[in-house]
């Protein structure tokens, strides 16, 4: 962890993750395997990932607020529900045995790699409101928030799909509110991971700088077909890393 080379690699991967999150979501599929590769424990990886991700989601949220695309008062209840869900997820994951979590993470990575491979594009979904805002807050806010506190990759995509498919938001508006909720869940999880003493702050600082740069680039270089290019990279990298973890567990058995 004291190696400048490892710190530089993690900085670069965090930059890529911040950029990817701004285009297609799923940056955690890059950063969590990277943190595990760097030698952090499963819980440390999840905690440190939140410490660096909060900068990317926070800067994107400020950008959209300055543009007047977020109305904080109307989103307050959804933000509160998301905070509660993420806090519960972060508390629960810290109670799981480290060996069990080591086996669970590769399964989750493969599962959400397949999700990114086969899921519909958010922009292709219907734009008709099917749920009231309070119902959305209690279901999607708490549910996706809990998932983000417990694991995380793909959270932004889930929030965006919910806003478009259930509340009928257009993609621009959905993206703005997604960043607000993603920042909320990152912050809530980070608070409870910090209380638990699981954040490796030196690593988080190097990656946070990469996240800030990547998020800025992604928000200013919105590529029309970005998700088409990014998804295969996310899928292949997470599957390969997961195969490595499975083989390591098999050889160590």
Tell me about this structure:
By secondary structure, the chain is mainly α. The protein contains ten helices and no strands. Helix 1 runs antiparallel to helix 2. It starts with a helix and ends with a helix.
Main sheet attributes: strand count, strand direction, barrel closure: none
Order of helices and strands: HHHHHHHHHH
Mean pLDDT: 83
pLDDT < 50 runs, ≥5 residues: none
Count of discrete alpha- or pi-helical segments spanning 4 or more residues: 10
User: Which structural class matches the secondary elements?
Assistant: mainly alpha
**DSSP strand tally:** 0
Strand content: under 5%
User: Which overall shape is indicated by the principal axes computed on the Cα atoms?
Assistant: globular
| Percent helix range | over 70%
The termini sit apart by 26 Å
Structural Rg: 17 Å
Features:
single chain; 253 residues; mainly alpha; 10 helices; globular
Report a brief summary of the structure.
Helices cover 79% and strands 0% of the residues. The protein has 253 residues and is mostly helical. It starts with a helix and ends with a helix.
Task: Please render the helix and strand layout as text.
Elements: H1 4-23, H2 28-37, H3 42-66, H4 72-93, H5 98-118, H6 133-150, H7 155-167, H8 171-195, H9 201-220, H10 226-252
Helix pairs in contact: 1-2, 1-9, 2-3, 3-8, 3-9, 4-6, 4-8, 5-10, 6-7, 6-8, 7-8
